């Protein structure tokens, strides 16, 4: 009998496979993206120390992003995370798509972050 994995379990497996290769350092932190149906989240993570340097989400109270479930919200999040990163002195990052396809909202976050000054 063949069992079918749920979408989230499948995404987690892909994410674990990606994470074996990439890791964030203090010089080049990992830009991790997580999306849900309503919101989108991004973090800059230093994996050597195990802490988050900067984070942004559409779920924050008083967030200028608004709805994170669409492309406009994802672009606003990419711009916001890049602004917060440059304020902390971070220019170069490693992009972690979180097991999602590089398409749609995940791609919009990445492109907006690049346009706002992050290099990856």
How would you describe this protein?
The chain is of the alpha+beta class. The protein has a single domain (7-115), classed as Nucleotidyltransferase, domain 5 (2-Layer Sandwich). Helix content is 34%, strand content 19%. It has 3 helices and 4 strands, in the order H-E-E-E-H-E-H. Strands 3-2-1-4 form a 4-stranded mixed β-sheet, sandwiched between helices. Helix 2 packs parallel to helix 3. The chain is globular, with a radius of gyration of 14 Å.
Mean pLDDT: 94
CATH architecture: 2-Layer Sandwich
Assign the CATH topology.
Nucleotidyltransferase, domain 5
Strand order of the largest sheet: 3-2-1-4
Radius of gyration: 14 Å
**Count of DSSP H/I helices:** 3
Query: Could you give a short account of the major beta sheet?
Result: 4 strands, mixed
What is the helical fraction, as a range of percent? 25-40%
Low-confidence stretches: none
**Secondary-structure class:** alpha+beta
Tell me the series of helices and strands, N- to C-terminal: HEEEHEH
End-to-end Cα distance, whole Å, is 43 Å
CATH class: Alpha Beta
Task: Give the number of domains.
Answer: 1
Q: Assess the beta-strand content as a share of residues.
A: 15-25%
Estimate the global geometry from the Cα principal axes: globular
Question: How is the secondary structure organized here?
Answer:
Blueprint: H1 7-19, E1 30-35, E2 40-46, E3 51-57, H2 71-87, E4 94-96, H3 105-115
Parallel strand pairs: 1-4
Antiparallel strand pairs: 1-2, 2-3
Provide a quick synopsis of the model.
The chain is an alpha+beta fold. The protein contains 3 helices and 4 strands, in the order αβββαβα.
